[in-house]
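Researcher: I'd like a candidate sequence for this fold, 543 residues long. If you have to choose between options at a position, lean toward the conservative one.
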């Protein structure tokens, strides 16, 4: 059975929403089980419960399809033993009333929650009964897209059925635009690795347009491995193919080079070099052969940067006029070429912000430069060798835990990791949980476990104040206590009203993000351990 949910390219990123399809081509989920094999859902312990669906009429899933959230999709599902025993798997388990109630209640809760989703772009996160994210998707309009999973016939579809039968909760994150939603989805899938997301789990990154501005004659190229300095970057872009096509069009206009030759402006021997074929067809100004001065070449690069920065209206209008003129004079091949140029240049708008859509796989962390950067930013007398990070994890205020990770010289030191089960806090109170964690960490002055040079708290100003309050009566203190807020990646520092905003490409910020993300991962891991133990008992790991 294919357990893959709707592919990412079948979301709104195709450029056409379901509401824009005609009635005859509406996406449908046939309720009849096409393979005639029994369907199943998974219990929290991993056991599969099989059943056969009843046959009902097909129902379109679309932006403008009517929805009845009050009715359970399970009204149309036959939960009895299959009619033919031979069609049942050897490990067939009949569905009990308790199983039925658990599925219906959890599913209805998630369906009702979707009714309050906004009609804005963003990503939705589907969770199982234990609060684990099992699928992440993007949407142009969150409510419409997410609600398509809560139709009567979605549960019996062989593509999305296995996912739908595990949904017990759903959340969303808003994005500024559809482009931001696509990039956010890719980032979250790489970080969370949900079980039902097949695409975007690898280390493939989105491409950038890179200009080597420090060269005598700057080079323009598309790359997935950009440099972190001495270049001007634009992106990330959604499509590598469209980006390369756009560069070809731009090269015909701005005559820049794309080769990897080292060209010295003071090399007089350049005039005797033979140009490549791009110069022969008028696509490159051939700086390698001294056919253009350095001043004129850099002027073209400056015009290109203005275009990429947003001043593209005039150029697009010129190409559009050329296309219409070619069409009017029946030069259809030329008109088609101008049309393709317009499409390629318009695609340059479909890109993220390099400061906001960070790809850690692209800009790798340099521990040494990160440590030195922190010393410079916080004016420390020496590089901070030891950094510890604290984070809190819970589910609705239950099984609250804290993590403390330990970095030495910018690298994780697992022997220094600690985890705490919160004892003095009831319900949801991150501030009090941080207070308890910091108090316990610094309750003793242990020479074998000295305080860190920097203590990093995951959170904003409130979390930082909670940590500072705990340190007032501590037996020892870290050299510096700061916090890192995730949404804007702002750094809060004691005795400073406004947070620090570091460059997203700063090695110091990347190191702090690495510590914060590792403390979050370690806290979540411990929390899931306690959740499984409380659900299945002390022998949960033997199930």
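Model: Candidate sequence:
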């Amino acid at each position: 059975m294919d357990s893959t949910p709707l592919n990412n390219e079948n979301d709104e990123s195709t450029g056409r929403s379901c509401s824009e399809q005609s009635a005859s081509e509406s996406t449908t989920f046939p309720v009849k089980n096409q393979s005639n094999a029994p369907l199943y859902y998974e219990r929290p312990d991993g056991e599969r419960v099989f059943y056969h669906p009843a046959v009902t009429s097909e129902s379109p899933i679309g932006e403008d399809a009517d929805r009845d959230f009050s009715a359970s999709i399970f009204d149309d599902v036959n939960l009895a033993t299959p009619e033919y025993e031979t069609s049942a798997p050897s490990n067939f388990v009949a569905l009990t009333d308790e199983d039925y109630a658990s599925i219906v209640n959890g599913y209805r809760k998630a369906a009702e929650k979707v009714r309050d989703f906004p009609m804005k772009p963003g990503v939705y996160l589907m969770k199982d009964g234990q609060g684990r994210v099992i699928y992440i998707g993007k949407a142009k309009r969150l409510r419409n897209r997410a609600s398509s999973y809560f139709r009567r016939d979605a549960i019996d579809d062989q593509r999305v059925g296995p996912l739908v039968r595990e949904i017990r909760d759903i959340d969303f994150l808003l994005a500024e635009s559809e482009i931001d939603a696509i990039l956010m989805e890719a980032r979250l899938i790489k970080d969370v690795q949900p079980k039902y997301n097949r695409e975007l789990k690898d280390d493939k990154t989105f491409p950038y347009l890179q200009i080597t501005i420090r060269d005598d004659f700057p080079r323009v190229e598309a790359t997935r491995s950009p440099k972190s300095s001495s270049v001007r970057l634009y992106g990330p872009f959604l499509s590598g193919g469209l980006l390369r096509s756009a560069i070809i069009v731009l090269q015909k206009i701005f005559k820049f080079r794309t080769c990897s030759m080292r060209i010295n402006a003071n090399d007089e021997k350049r005039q005797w070099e033979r140009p490549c074929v791009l110069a022969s067809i008028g696509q490159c100004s051939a700086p390698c052969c001294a056919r253009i001065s350095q001043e004129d070449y850099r002027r073209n690069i400056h015009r290109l940067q203005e275009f990429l920065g947003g001043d593209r209206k005039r150029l697009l209008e010129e190409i559009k006029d050329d296309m219409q003129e070619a069409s009017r004079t029946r030069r259809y091949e030329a008109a088609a070429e101008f049309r393709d140029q317009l499409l390629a240049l318009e695609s340059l708008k479909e890109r993220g912000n390099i400061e906001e859509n960070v790809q850690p796989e692209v800009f790798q962390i340099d521990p040494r430069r990160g440590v030195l950067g922190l010393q410079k930013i916080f004016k420390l007398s020496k590089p901070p060798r030891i950094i510890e990070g604290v984070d809190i994890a819970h589910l609705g205020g239950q099984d609250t835990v804290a993590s403390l990770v330990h970095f030495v010289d910018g690298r994780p030191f697992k022997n220094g990791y600690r985890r705490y089960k919160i004892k003095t806090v009831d319900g949801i109170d991150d501030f009090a949980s941080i207070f308890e964690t910091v108090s316990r960490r610094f309750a003793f002055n242990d020479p074998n476990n000295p305080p860190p040079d920097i203590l990093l708290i995951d959170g904003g100003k409130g979390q930082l104040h909670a940590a500072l309050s705990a340190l007032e009566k501590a037996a020892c203190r870290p050299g510096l206590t700061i916090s890192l807020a995730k949404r804007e990646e702002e750094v809060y520092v004691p005795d400073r009203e406004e947070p620090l905003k570091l460059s997203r490409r700063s090695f110091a910020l990347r190191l702090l993000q690495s510590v914060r993300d590792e403390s979050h991962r370690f806290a979540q891991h411990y929390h899931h351990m306690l959740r499984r133990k409380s659900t299945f008992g002390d022998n949960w790991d033997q199930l």
